[in-house]
Specification:
By secondary structure, the protein is an alpha/beta fold. It has helices spanning 62-69, 92-102, 118-129, 135-144, 160-172, 190-205, 218-221, 244-256, and strands spanning 18-29, 36-47, 51-55, 77-82, 85-86, 103-107, 178-182, 211-214, 226-231, 234-240. It has a domain at 48-75 and 87-256: Rossmann fold (3-Layer(aba) Sandwich).
């Protein structure tokens, strides 16, 4: 049985279906006076079938949030779910299996194997898992990414944008419930970056996926349905239907003066597991 999404959680409305969510999420590094708080009591719900951008200055906790939601990093306190399954406390083997079957990743670096063709790179996660690719689904993904004439090419024979599109196809090959993209356009020129962003948008609109993208770029965030803003390890604001101009204005407000406090809860408070009271925040 799934646990209700907290009413005050950022990212989706109360009762909305969440692909991933966290309650009272805390992530700290170090101990005592040297303790650094990367995430400070975050409540968030990632709406299924939506494109969510996570924004914030360097050191705000945006990549740490993605890593905790994806099960790539452990949490210091709080609870995390992928779909209806709580992942808090799962061991490494269980997390590896869960990520393999339900999560896709696109990083700033494509991480393609140079000796494999584009097609072999795309199907590699399925091959490692011993799963037979769904050829109909792969054909749809490859067509959406316009990679049909590049499948026999090795990474060195592809442009940067084509390599990142292969990485996107690899993330989608197993038809995951959720795709995490961490600065996916960071190493690309503007044209190639736009191609990748348009695909991530199409993955949501045409392929029914859920995408969470960490970015600092207002133009990239403008492709999302929702932008979440982090500062000092907390979600301090959100914007629906963001545009590059509105995101830039919001970022300038944060840079110019005191950051707004998180909105007070409007519904019943979620159960918060006990955890250490954070004392210091990461600089950034």
């Amino acid at each position: 049985m799934s646990t209700p999404v907290p009413g005050e959680a950022r990212g989706t409305t109360a009762g909305g279906e969440a692909a991933a969510r966290a309650v009272a999420l805390v992530k700290t590094y170090g101990t005592g006076e040297a303790q650094v708080v990367a995430l400070d009591g975050v409540d968030v719900a990632i709406g299924r079938g939506r494109f969510t951008a996570v924004m914030g200055p360097s050191g705000s906790g945006k990549s740490t949030l993605m890593h905790c939601l994806a099960g790539l990093d452990t949490v210091s306190a709080g609870r995390v779910w992928l779909g209806d399954r709580e992942i808090t406390g799962l061991d490494d083997r269980q997390l590896t299996r869960l990520r393999r079957d339900h999560v896709g990743f696109v990083f700033q670096s494509c991480n393609l194997l140079p000796t494999l063709t584009a097609e072999e790179n795309i199907t590699l996660p399925l091959d490692i898992a011993g799963r037979v690719p769904d050829r109909e689904w792969l054909h749809e993904v490859i067509g959406t990414l316009r990679l049909g004439d590049r499948l026999r090419h090795r990474p060195s024979q592809l442009s940067g944008g084509q390599q990142q599109r292969v990485a996107c196809a690899r993330a989608l090959a197993a038809r995951p419930a959720l795709i995490f993209a961490d600065e996916p356009t960071g190493n690309l020129d503007s044209r190639s970056g736009l191609e990748v962003l348009r695909f991530l948008r199409a993955a949501v609109d045409d392929l029914g996926q859920t995408v969470v993208m960490v970015t600092h770029d207002p133009n990239a965030a403008a492709h999302a349905d929702l932008a979440l803003y982090l500062a000092d390890g907390r979600i301090v604001d959100e914007m629906t239907r963001p545009t590059a101009e509105s995101v830039l204005r919001r970022m300038q407000v944060f840079a110019a003066g005191p950051r707004p406090a998180p909105t007070a809860p409007t519904g019943p408070a979620p159960d918060r597991p006990p955890g250490p009271a954070p004392r210091h925040h990461r600089n950034g």
